[in-house]
Input
Amino acid sequence: MPHTRGSSHGKSRGIQKANQDENWVKIMEDAYQQWFELEKETGTSLYRQSGLLWIQENPASGLLKFEDGLKRMDFKYKRFQPDEFKRQYPMLKYPNCQVLYEDTAGRLKADKCLSLVQDLYVKYGGTLKDGCQVTSIEPGSVISVHTKDESYQAKGIVIAAGPWTNKVTSLLDLKLPLTPTAINVCYWKGEEDAYSMEKCPTICEMIANPNTSGPYVGPFLQFTDPYFEYPGYIKTCLYTGTEVDPDYRDVDIDNKWDVELLCDYVKCHFPLLEPKPSIIDRCIYTVTPDQNFILDSHPKWKNIVIAAGFSGHGFNVSPVVGKLLSEKIMDLETSHDLSQFAIGRFQ
Output
């Protein structure tokens, strides 16, 4: 650990609070606080503020609905007028769009976050076992988990296996509506500091779903990040991809329909970038039908808690998820309402 085959590798992840769901905003506020506490405890910089532009082409019905939700919660944001947007961001071309700005959004240094949390886990008495494939699970008041080499017993367990979740829960006769989806993440070289974090925020554009056979529905998100991971390179990806078996993630590595769409997108909106990506990376989203998490006990065994289906937006709230899972497995009142994350919503 860490490894590059799942959903948590890479140098950065976005973090933002704006959402139409009031419960989600509360969870995000908790997440920000916990990341800041980790920074303070360890003296390590994990977060960098960049701001976030929410964009949609006119008539922008999805963005207007999103804005109505922000107003109801008295969420602070800025609405750009077209001329103002052009003056402030001359390196971006969105001529027929409406734009909102969230200033508290930013980037988490994902690789540092992972390393730091693992080190703290060991520091406070935890034991990490790497490379242990689970072969069977015997549920009961005391649960036995068997791997190829060892067996473990506990009064309660948490299954957080990412895109491999159904391969583990199948050992407990449970199949969840999860779609492991390969996402191509592309990096474009730009001119000098044209898209530096000092000049260019993260961009989230709402577009029509280009993958009608995929697991996503409704207004579709496309993310673009300023220079951060690789100096002089913008990072961008579609919020969809190709369904895969996580054990054979790169079998269809030449299937780059999404990269072709991104090339067209960059050509239209980023005039100071090269026309083709210089680097293409891949990760996996594990997607639920409603793109909300699963944070719930097994329907039959309450001492087995499952965390899965983070649908591409789980990393930024991971400290809160960890707290909620610990509360759940100890049968304590949870810090946040988990009803929207229940397994039963799919029945």
About this structure: DSSP finds seven helices and 18 strands in the chain. The longest strand covers residues 179-189. The radius of gyration is 21 Å. The longest helix spans residues 22-42.
